[in-house]
Specification:
By secondary structure, the protein is mainly α. It has a single domain, classed as Cytochrome C Oxidase, Chain A, CATH 1.20.210.10. Helix content is 57%, strand content 1%. Strands 1-2 form a two-stranded antiparallel sheet. Helix 3 runs antiparallel to helix 4.
Length: 690
């Protein structure tokens, strides 16, 4: 079906505008004479544009675009640039810690690099990477032509960009950037302990970037709620889109608290407001406000990347996702619980209720464990293939699982007291955050690169990058657990040779440089693909894509779709490209060949010859004949539902699913399912008018 009536050059139904006649071909002139004199121009036909656009025109187009795909490109490119900058800072810190003594920098400079490294990685790389992938994919996955507010979308990006540049620009201030850590604990964040303009640039840059993130979240929520394609019900949305929705909700709950705290902190520094004065309990107040934002932020940068991995694993397992509904439910549970565990970071203060926050910290591990069962269940008995995206997904599973297990240790107050403020916490944090974000980001790049650019990344270079990063990461951070258990404190620029930390720190630093080198194959891969890569000539280069973005070209047109396939299941693209497999899949309606009907087994169809009028939720209103279960012969997918084609067949599967187990409209009470009461009322009306 056409999307929003848009016709683009080269699309079906497109016609070039007929050129005007010149004066020599006007009324009353001889047509032959006019043609002989060349006064009648031939009709124009669409064709390839041979001239390259000027560089200035390209720059202006990208600076003023409202296309969600280009804005997604800008988010991802800018975020990756910040990632490289923060990575260089990390290498400088690891070089300093490789041996005892101060070799490369002073302790103050180390604190400044530590502050900027954490700030950039969390708020200028991880969070914008979510915005980038959400912009690129979410409208495609729900069949929308763009986001709800395209201009607001671009404004959100500019807020993020300028805020990030202000934070990074604090390096140029006379007294240097902020040195109070990325958490900015009071009283270290006041004007007495952190003088100069650098900390003020840090505060205002993060506030501006945070406003952009909040506006982007409003845009995403509105788009998902209001702009889904016909047939794209909430429980047919891809898991990535679900996670985008709940991440945006978390942003609206957490980021305003951070923005308010930052503005009040600036009022403290410049106007003497004394809100965070230590003598008035301001130090604990800042910790409560910051971690009320900080712990949901962990899930803000985790949930969308959970969604990326959830999209990758079914494609390379050749199976539908195992436990779709439980995955969505686990995401809901994580969203709710993440708001009530912020004091998990404040056990050592002695000012929080330990039993409650410890219990909630243990409890939030349950829905995360459910997700692991779903991912593992998807791979079991699947036809696995280990292309680069699947390697990144498996690396994510291994790394995040280890980080989750150490998180369970930290949820216990006695264990937390033992390792708090040590390198054990640093290792756990990087296993959770780096293992989630970076592995999933590179997996998403490898998976959707043909959809972003129309070209496939080199497989060999991708695997070289994966193994280099995987080995480098675990070499860097695994040994830091042992450093923390032995008592090495975090946030220190130096240690004594007699402490016994030298050997493990040296190993960690070697791993860090190997980790840094892993970005070189990726950068070369991007350059090689852009210059010499072959263009993808199919909608789904992986062959088993399930969500709706794989039902349009690579890259998509300006408004994403020329026509939309019928959406009758959670896997519309797979149903479109593999109609035979869609019909034979366990639990699918046999009559809905190629139309992605809702799951419906033979034993779940209603009683004989019942007719149901299917309303707007299942497409245009049509009368559907649903055959009894015993009328469906095995081995003949074209029989059993009349008519066995188009919307009627797909609607039959949807009705049968929602009325499964019912022997009559007013008979035995069946299991609860979405829309059951509505469909029962419609069925009763049909029977009443017979």
């Amino acid at each position: 079906m056409p999307v929003w009536g848009v016709r683009t050059a080269g699309a079906p139904g497109y016609q070039a505008r007929r050129p005007r006649r010149t004066a020599g071909a006007g009324p009353g002139r001889d047509d032959a004479k006019g043609r002989a004199m060349g006064t009648e121009t031939a009709h124009a036909t669409p064709g390839p544009v041979r001239d390259r656009p000027r560089a200035g025109r390209v720059v202006v187009d990208w600076l003023t675009t409202t296309d969600h795909k280009k804005i997604g490109h800008l988010y991802l490119i800018t975020g990756f640039g910040f990632f490289l900058a923060a990575g260089v800072m990390a290498l400088l810190m690891r070089a300093e810690l490789a041996r005892p003594g101060l070799q490369l920098m002073s302790a103050e400079r180390y604190d400044q690099l530590f502050t900027l490294h954490g700030t950039i990685m969390l708020l200028l790389f991880a969070t914008p990477s979510f915005a980038g992938f959400a912009n690129e994919l979410m409208p495609l996955q729900i069949g929308a032509p763009d986001v709800a507010f395209p201009r607001l979308n671009m404004l959100s990006y500019w807020f993020f960009l300028f805020g990030g540049l202000i934070v990074l620009g604090s390096l140029l201030s006379p007294d240097g950037p902020a040195d109070y850590g990325w958490f900015a604990y009071a009283p270290l964040n006041d004007a007495t302990h952190s003088p100069g303009i650098g900390p003020d640039l840090w505060i205002m840059g993060l506030a501006l970037s945070g406003f952009g993130t909040i506006l982007g979240a409003v845009n995403f929520i509105t788009t998902i709620i209001a702009m889904r394609a016909p047939g794209m019900t909430m429980f047919r949305m891809p898991v990535f889109t679900w996670n985008t929705l709940f991440t945006s909700i978390l942003i609206l709950l957490a980021f305003p608290v951070l923005a308010a705290a930052l503005l009040v902190l600036e009022a403290d520094r410049r106007f003497g407001a004394q809100v965070f004065e230590a003598a008035n309990g301001g130090a604990l107040l800042w910790q409560h406000l910051f971690w009320f934002f900080g712990h949901p932020e962990v899930y803000i940068i985790a949930l969308p990347f959970f969604g990326i991995v959830t999209e990758i694993i079914p494609v390379f397992s050749r199976k539908p996702i195992f436990g779709y509904v439980t995955l969505v439910g686990a995401t809901m549970a994580i969203t709710g619980l993440s708001i009530v565990v912020w004091a998990h970071h404040m056990f050592a203060t002695g000012a929080v209720l330990l039993p409650f926050f410890s219990f909630m910290s243990f409890l939030i591990a349950v829905p995360t464990g459910v997700k692991f069962f779903n991912w593992t269940g998807t791979m079991i008995h699947g036809s696995l293939s280990f292309e680069t995206p699947m390697l990144w997904a498996l690396g994510f599973l291994v790394t995040f699982l280890f980080g989750g297990l150490t998180g369970v240790i930290l949820a216990s107050p006695p264990m937390d007291f033992h390792v708090t403020d040590s390198y054990f916490v640093v290792a756990h944090f990087h296993y959770v955050v780096f293992g989630t974000v970076v592995f999933a980001v590179f997996g998403g790049f490898a998976f959707w690169w043909p959809k972003f650019t129309g070209k496939m990344l080199d497989e060999r270079l991708g695997k070289i990058q994966f193994w280099t990063l995987f080995v480098g990461f675990h070499t860097t951070f695994l040994v830091q657990h042992w450093l923390g258990a032995e008592g090495m404190p975090r946030r220190y620029a130096d240690y004594l040779a007699a402490d016994g930390f030298t050997a493990l720190n040296t190993v960690s630093s070697i791993g860090a440089f190997l980790l840094g080198l892993s970005t070189l194959p990726f950068l070369y891969n991007v350059w090689k693909t852009a210059r010499h890569g072959e263009k993808v000539d199919t909608d789904d280069p992986w062959g088993y894509g399930r969500s709706l973005e794989w039902a349009t070209s690579c890259p998509p047109p300006r408004h994403n779709f020329v026509t939309l396939p019928r959406i009758r299941s959670e896997s519309p693209a797979f149903d479109l490209h593999h109609p035979a497999y869609a019909a034979e899949a366990p639990g699918r309606s046999r009559g809905a060949v190629g139309h992605g009907s809702e799951r419906c087994s033979e034993g779940q169809v209603r009683s004989r010859d019942d007719e149901i009028r299917v309303g707007a939720d299942d497409g245009p209103v049509r009368r559907v004949q649903v055959a009894p279960a015993d009328a469906v012969p095995r081995g003949d997918p074209g029989q059993g539902v009349a008519p066995a084609h188009g919307v009627a067949a797909g609607a039959a599967g949807g009705v049968a699913r929602c009325l499964r187990g019912l022997r009559s409209v007013r008979g035995v009470r069946g299991p609860r399912c979405p829309g059951r009461r509505r469909l029962l009322r419609r069925a009763a009306l049909v029977e009443a008018h017979r």
